[in-house]
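Chain A, query sequence.
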Amino acid sequence: MATFTHDLPDGMFEWVARTGGGEITQLYRHVARREAWVVDVTRPDGSVCEGFLRLERERVPGNPWSLAKETQIIRALRETAVPVPDVYGENDELACTLFERVPGRSDLDKIDDAVQQRRVMEHFMEVVAEMHTLDLDSIPLPPMPRPTTAAECAFGELDLLLAQWGPFVAGYRSQEPLLGYCLDWLGRFQPQQIARVSLVQGDTGPVNFMFAGDRVTSVIDWEWGHLGDPMEDLGNICVREFWNPSGGLRGLFPLYEKASGIPVSFEAARYYRVQQNVRGMIPIHYVTQNAHPRESIAWYLAYRYVGDRASAESMAESMGIAVERPEMPSADSGERDILSEAARYALDHDVAPAIGDAFARARAGDVGILVACIDRRRRYGAAIEAIERDEMGGVLGATPATVTDGFAALDAAITARTLPDETLLPYLARRAYRLEWLHAPACALYPDRRWSPLE
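Chain A, predicted structure.
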């Protein structure tokens, strides 16, 4: 019997073997945001159950984005034309599900053939159209709120998120004024009408589907699945394509409209790309403020600072407000730190190349990124703070004594809506650009990300 090094909860290894009907012959941690394991179970007849194990180590009572709900959605969709993985088994006590490991790949952004990228995305839009036109009463979906108005669609998932993260957001807004501005913006610019209520994936687009050749083989990751405005998923596709550039979006939404019969609102899609970013940024900001050692903090830093800049740019585009990348502090203005340079060299040249396990090697890379970010914060943090105080003085009419005081004053002004968007948003965008630059070693995980034009 093969032996494996793992830290799965007690009993889960044995349950996977029983569920697969044999002996586990492959097991390794998948490198991803949500914990998952690749597993093969070889049966007595020699056939292999190729599985993908998802688990929740910490269950939150009443969690609207639970693995159990995700599993139910996928089970329901197995009865439709929407391609999803099979569910080999689920265990409520262990809080895990063993899914089919669907053939294909998810990294459409890594495909060099632009024609193949385009054909995959065109087929994906047809799959999304199929999903959005399902008869919700004819499939066994789990209990989920069914909105009836545009406002309920716009705020339903956001309100659920704020209910869970409310205490954090309440105390954090004065530290991160962009978050408060985003929440206020979403309340001011919500769509006024919807064509229908559909099942939406809630986080759909490149990387969250598998493909082989030029066809989608499976739509994966239904954690955020719910009922809502189909334009939400179009906004999600904008976000996923931003992070995982896959040939652009030109012409895809008209194709979706033709396949689904649902009229496309580009204005609503732009709204929902902000909404999706904000929904993602709240827990990401929390993790970067309250880091757990199990998390890939380098990844979270990249998503935080690139994502915040993307939110500012998206809101500015929607309102027709120009924002510009400011001049950054000189790269020579900070003092070198020979200790951090030595640590990064050892990680990059001596440690990482000697690690055979892919997950451990990725974690070593994360450590190198964190050391580099710590060094840049030390070298340039004071210069950045001085710029922030000066620029906030221009926005508020008086230079705050400290950055903390300035952020609190900005949050109060955002809440009271006493500052014009044309003054406030360009400053918030400049600050987002600076923070992205400051954390460049992490943000280099997602270099040069830009919104694809919508037509």
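Residues 174 and 407 are 5 Å apart (CA to CA). The longest strand covers residues 48-55.
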